[in-house]
UniProtKB/TrEMBL annotation:
Pfam families: DctP. PANTHER family: PTHR33376, SIALIC ACID-BINDING PERIPLASMIC PROTEIN SIAP. It comes from Suttonella ornithocola. InterPro entries: DctP_fam (IPR018389), TRAP_DctP_sf (IPR038404). This is TRAP-type mannitol/chloroaromatic compound transport system, periplasmic component.
Length: 321
């Protein structure tokens, strides 16, 4: 009830008489590197606009849960939001570009993939009533297993954690059995035998204390999911050109800083996994080749969904390699 009243108050501007006070919703906690970066962005915007724009951050899904954020910004119930790009893949398959596996497996490659898909993504967001400000990648998604593996036969018949359409597709491509398990239930799922393998980031590995239930981490960086920060188009269009440019300059700064912080978070969490005696391994050539084959298959399926738009993105990415 309190949450509903808070949302209504924000929607009707009850929090401030100043029309340039924005509210922003994010599903991530205060200590997440994405959230810390947003706080710096907010400071930069307020400084650059001499206080003309003030942004109040509502973290940890305190205002809206992740699935609600995009709709809330579109409806101008809240002025800004943060969400995974792939969270909109049910609206348009182009947004799946964020999670094409075994295609862009390093930070430079992920940045290249983003650079060739940015205009299409931004245009589609604009058509939906929001303006894209900046995008930052999470660390790559990697395998956590009870035993080391030298080929993909290891996964046949294994129960593998799935938490979205993509991870279900990967599990099936590996001849594993996908089992839906939320991040908060991972430890119990491993200990009870509900799952025997998973693919996720080192950040999730640390937050769930993966070393308590698995000992092997294989660094494949299957994909680097990206968060996007966006603003209501109705709010954006009320800004004068000079103010828009100042906000975009702060966004560009935040994007650069955020990618650097993502890499730092990746290294930090890998070190923590190693400190807890996790076996950090690189994939064998056989595993790497097998995963690339799976990636090619899923990319081709994506092109069938997206048509010319998807094909142009893939062609541009491959040409940039």
């Amino acid at each position: 009830m309190k949450k509903s009243i808070l949302a209504l108050a924000i929607a009707f501007g009850a929090f401030s008489a100043n029309a340039d006070t924005w509210n922003m919703a994010t599903p991530y906690p205060d200590n997440e590197f994405h959230t810390l970066n947003i706080k710096e962005f907010i400071k930069d915007v307020e400084a650059a606009t001499d206080g003309k724009i003030k942004i109040t951050l509502h973290s940890g899904a305190s205002l809206y849960k992740a699935p609600e954020i995009f709709k809330a910004v579109r409806a101008n119930q809240v002025q800004m939001g943060e969400l995974l790009i792939s969270a909109l893949s049910n609206d348009d398959p182009v947004f799946k570009v964020d999670t094409l596996p075994f295609l862009a497996t390093t930070y430079p490659q992920s940045q290249k993939l983003w650079s060739v898909s940015k205009d299409v993504v931004a245009k589609k967001l604009d058509e939906k009533g929001v303006v894209l400000l900046y995008v930052i990648a999470w660390p790559g998604q990697n395998f956590y297993t009870k035993a080391p593996f030298e080929n993909l036969d290891y996964f046949k018949g294994k129960k593998m954690r799935a938490y979205n359409v993509l991870t279900t597709q990967i599990a099936k491509a590996l001849d594993a059995s996908p089992v839906t398990v939320e991040a908060s239930d991972v430890a119990q799922a491993f200990s009870t035998g509900q799952i025997e393998a998973m693919i996720t980031s080192p950040i999730t590995g640390v937050s769930t204390q993966a070393w308590d239930y698995v000992k092997n981490y294989t660094e494949v960086n299957a994909w680097l999911p990206k968060n996007m920060i966006f603003v209501s188009k109705r709010v954006w269009n009320k800004l004068d050109k000079d103010t828009q440019e100042k906000v975009l300059a702060a966004a560009e700064k935040a994007e650069k800083r955020g990618w650097e912080e993502s890499e730092a978070a990746n290294k930090e969490n890998l070190s923590i996994l190693a400190e807890h005696k996790m076996n950090i391994a690189q994939p064998t050539p056989e595993v790497k080749a097998g995963l690339e084959k799976i990636g090619e298959k899923l990319a081709n399926e994506w092109v069938k969904e997206t048509g010319e738009e998807g094909q142009k993105i893939l062609d541009a990415y491959r040409a940039a390699q």
